[in-house]
Amino acid sequence: MIETSSDPLRLYVIRHGETEWSLSGRHTGRTDIPLTAKGERDAQELGSALRGIRFAHTFTSPLQRARRTCELFAPGPPAQIDPDLAEWDYGDYEGRLSADIRTGHADWNLYRDGCPHGETTTQALARAERLLSRIRALHGNVALFSHGHFSGILAARWIGLPLVEAEHFELGPASLAVLGHAAHHPDVSVIANWNWTPDLTSQPGAAPRRGNVSSPSRHARDQWANEADAPVCELNALAKKLVVFDLDGTLAESKAAVDAEMASLLDGLLRFVNVAVISGGGWPQFQKQLISHLPTDADLRSLSLLPTCGTKFYRYTDDWELLYAEEFADDQRAKILGALNTAMESSHIAPSGRWGEVIEDRGTQITLSALGQQAPLDEKRKWDPDFTKRKRMQALLVDLIPEFSVRLGGTTSIDVTRPGVDKAYGIRKLRDLLGISIAEMVFIGDALFPGGNDHPAWEAGVACIQVRDSHETKRLIETILACRYGAVRANRPAERIAAPPLPGASPSP
Questions:
Q1: Hey, do 10-216 and 237-326+421-484 end up sharing a CATH topology, with the first three levels equal?
Q2: What average pLDDT does the chain have?
Q3: pLDDT tens-digit profile of 353-376?
Q4: What residues are labeled active site?
Q5: pLDDT at 138
Q6: Are strands 242-245 and 441-445 parallel, antiparallel or unpaired?
Q7: Is the CATH number of domain 237-326+421-484 3.40.50.1000?
Q8: What is residue 91's predicted lDDT score, i.e. its pLDDT?
Q9: Domain segments of the chain: what residues?
Q10: Helix, strand or coil for residue 133?
Q11: CATH class as words, domain 330-417
Q12: Which of 239, 247, 305 is nearest to 272 (CA)?
């Protein structure tokens, strides 16, 4: 039967079949090229596999590769050509490979930067919003024949993500996505299936199976993969009970405060899941960079803070409470301070300028900041970008104080702690004090590569995602919120998951 006006709206977004340019990876915007023979077969097989689905409406891009896919798919209702379903106009980048484009623009991102002499991000977004506005007035199953990049925009905007998040929704040739609404929450937009192809036994809209169905966050994880060859675990970050963050380089720039957007995102995350922050900074740095910038009504009971690489642990009840501190003894402190001064003198890599205190005793950790605690970020970034200076100093320190742990810290620092006390120690303390297994955690940081100060978290066995900066962390938090909970619902109270009580503590009312 044909759907009536009472049938719920479901969008079947179908990408055209293979072309010569999609096969080679060339950007195919407004160039009107045909399907390959395989592309035609795949389009026909996709339509045959979905003969049991009745469509109320069909719309197609005007470009022949989409129109031909629609014709071979044969959804039923006559197709209406809609120019808003066309692919991005790539302008000067038409026909080029991404790798070639990035030789002249290393950090180019289509969804952030657009294309010179082509379509801007504002124009592409306007097309998607215009199309979705019209489609939302319809009912029943709607077939949309479109293209790879534009389909990603439709998916991102359907669940309320910013345009830049469309990069995480990659739709293969002759595959489809199903956009609909949560079964028991019809006001929540969801992605019911992604990259469905006929080699799957269930029809799209049924429970996803392993195989060609991609999680919407899978491509995001690929993008956030460690670029410095650090091992990054395969994981489903959306199912974890505890999200653990590094601070400098992950939530904020070195020694800088979290900005308003990050504070708001952390507040949203705290409403749903337990959050912890582990950093080499001391407690005053946590107060200055993080705590004082969170909203006044943030659920601090869901937040655990571990300064100085986990050598201290703070939890919030009526106020912040210190649960433990791995302090140095006086003789240990004296030996470490002497070794740090010797290493600075012997390494012959003293910087030309210094800004503030170079060696800081944080009680449970002693940190050497080669340029000083208040050095400008630009100066810090260019002093030791390949870690060679600090690795030389680290080698000297390992010989001088082998009984202590010596690790590279932030951009210019080296951290010394008691042996075995690092971010892996902090992860295990989170496990013991919160009662959350390591398998139920995910760690997010910018230095997961071997030798990096986040690497011990990976060594502890926790699932890890590496980010390049706080911008990527923001997009990751948005993706967790949107994908796990269907959508971030504006102006609506969120159900909170209470932090587990500490051993021996009375549960919160």
A1: yes
A2: 81
A3: 788 888 888 888 888 888 887 788
A4: 16, 87
A5: 92
A6: parallel
A7: yes
A8: 93
A9: 10-216, 237-326+421-484, 330-417
A10: helix
A11: alpha beta
A12: 239
